[in-house]
Amino acid sequence: MSRSGLIAHQRTVWLKEKAQELGFSSVGVSKAEELTEEAPRLEKWLKERMHGEMKYMEGHFEKRLDPRKLVPGTKSVVSLLFNYHNPEVNSREGEFKISQYAVGTDYHFVLKRKLKELLNKGKIRIAKIKEPKGIKKSECVNCL
Hints:
It is a single chain. The chain is mainly alpha-helical and 144 residues long. It has a domain at 33-74. The chain is 42% helix and 8% strand.
């Protein structure tokens, strides 16, 4: 493995470890590239109005298919999974059922706070090892 490959691998291992410490269930890192195979499926999904009342999904089609257009210079995409299931909610018979994400603090705020914390941990790590390249900041929950 090349030195740059080794550094990338070490960063990925570190990132996954820190993300899981913050409560993320799963972490994936992928190359930032155009999602050409997904384009027809997304277009069909939108035309069939599968996005319901989420009007924001209709905009920025090209940016949804290529993260480099959303944040120029992007090389990798970090995808995080956070399970906000709470077994205590809706557990009594006869109660109205409320979607898990709608109970408690708005998940957009919770996840953004966690993303910022992860980003700050990354900045501290980079400063400690004095690598010449930094992190380009872009934390987003339900981007676009």
